[in-house]
Every structure is written in C-alpha cells, then in structure tokens.
Amino acid sequence: MSKVSNRTKIATALVGVLALASSNLVVADPLTDVQKADSMIHADAAASQKNVDKYFDQAQDMLFEYGSVADERESLKSYNDYVASLVADQQKTMDAIQNDINGVDKLRQGVVPLMFKMVESLEQFVQLDLPFNSEVRANRVKELKTLLNTAEVTLAEKYRLILDAYSIEREYGSAVAVNQGKLTLDGKEVLVDFFNLGRVALYAQSLDQKTGWMYNPQTKGWDKLEDSYLRELTKGIRIARKQGALDLFALPIPAAETAQ
Q1: Signal peptide span per the entry (predicted)?
Q2: Residue 189: what are its φ and ψ, rounded to 5°?
Q3: Among candidate residues 146, 79, 88, 77, the one with its CA nearest the CA of residue 116
Q4: 7-54 pLDDT, tens per residue?
Q5: Cβ atoms of 218 and 254 closer than 8 Å
Q6: How far apart are CA 126 and CA 162, in angstroms?
Q7: pTM of the prediction?
Q8: H/E segment holding residue 126
C-alpha cells in the first residue's frame, strides 16, 4: 500500500513537472514573437530612415538644380532681351538702307539730266572763255559727252569725272601759265608763247620776243601790243616759267564788258 502510494506520488510529481514545463513553453512563444516583431520594426524603421535620407538628398539635389536652372533662365532671358534689342536696331538700319535703295531710281532720274546739263554748260563756258589750252579743254568736254553715253562706266564715276573737269576749270582762274603754240594772223601761222593771267587776260609773244599781242574778248581777235610792253611781257613769261625772280610787271588788260 505504501509502495503504491509512493509510486503514485512520483507519477503525480512527474505529471506536475511536465505540466509546468509545458506551461513555460506556452508562455515563452508570445515573448519570442514580440521580440521578433520589435526587431522587424527596428529593421523597417532603419530602412525607412534610409529612404527618407535618400529622398532628402534627392530633394536637395533637385533644389540646387532648380536654382541653377532658374539662374540660367534669368541669364538667358537677359541675353535674349539684349539680342532682341540688337535685332530691332538692325531692322531699323535695314529699313533705312532699303528706303535709300528705293530712292536710288528717283536719284538717277534727277542726276542724269543734271550731268548732261553740266557738260553742256561746261562746253559753252569753254567756247566763251579766253582761248588758252583750247584744244585740251575742248577734248576734255568731248570725252565727257562720250562718257555720258557709255554703259560700262558707273553713274558715280561719270559724276566724279564731271566734277574733276569743273575743278580743273576753276584752277585756271588763278593760274599764271605759259604754253607754246601757233597763232593765226592774217592767214599766217606764227609760233608764239601764250601767256595767260588766269582769266583776266591772255597774251601772245613771238619766239624772237619782237612782237606781242593781247586777246580781245569783245572782237574775238588779237590786238597788237605797243613795243613798250614787250619787255614787261617777256618778264612775265620768264616769271611764269620760273626762269626769273618774282617781280612786278605792267601789262594792259582788256576793258570790262558793259553790262546790258
């Protein structure tokens, strides 16, 4: 009896131990799950923090890039405004040039008749002027008349040559010059020195210096000089040729024409 009871007690004790052990295992499982969950939460939090850090860095980079783009945009806008002002100014210049081009035809219409009139007036002037360098001056007018009808020469060049001819004629007015040539008197040609004092007077002297003449604009002929003027005429011719020192000399001059 006592043996059975002892065995029963031992069995009962074993059952209690097993029951207790089983109870501890049941309690330990939820704790492990909590620990695992906590670890997962920490892992997820760390991963989330990495994402946050990554997105923050990306946001900072994008913000910096936006600032750079904004600055570049302002710079480009300023440059575009500058270029636009240049284009506008160039357009004004082009418009002005185009207006000038459009007016060229009208200018031609006015200049061409003017040039013909200038050459015609020059021809009449040479014919009415004192007859010095007559052949050279007449040939110059003839060349200008031919030039006006030449297509190969530009309008500007024609106008320039006409002005050159007028400039040469203007210089004759203050020139003191000597040219050798032939003077026709009573149907005979005499080799003489022509001496002109600008457009004031024109003289001629035979090469032997024994005879002198003065051109008469009213009669279009030559009046013989008195012998007393021959020495003065010779002095003037030598001075004009730079063969003598500058000095005064006295010669008669044609009477001024009476105004009509």
Answers
A1: 1-28
A2: -95, 130
A3: 146
A4: 555 555 555 544 544 444 444 456 676 777 777 887 877 888 888 888
A5: yes
A6: 14
A7: 0.56
A8: helix 104-128
Q: Are 196 and 219 in contact (CB under 8 A)?
A: no
Residue 87, H or E segment: helix 2-102
* Cα-based distances in Å from 68 to 60, 64, 227: 12, 6, 104
Class of residue 7 by CB neighbours under 10 A (exposed 0-12, middle 13-18, buried 19+) = exposed
Using DSSP, state whether 210 is helix, strand or coil: coil
Burial class (CB in 10 A: 0-12, 13-18, 19+), 234: middle
The predicted-structure confidence for 160-190, as pLDDT tens digits, reads as follows 999 999 999 999 988 899 999 999 988 889 9
Chain-centre distance for alpha carbon 95: 15
- Please say whether the beta carbons of 111 and 159 come within 8 A: yes
Q: Please say whether the beta carbons of 157 and 110 come within 8 A.
A: no
pLDDT of 245 above 80: yes
Which among 218, 192, 224, 223 has a CA at the least distance from the CA of 206? Answer: 192
- Give the dihedral sign, CA 160/161/162/167: positive
Q: Is-contact 233 204, C-beta < 8 A? A: no
- Local structure of 120: helix, strand or coil: helix
Whether the CB-CB separation of 215 and 203 falls below 8 Å is answered with: yes
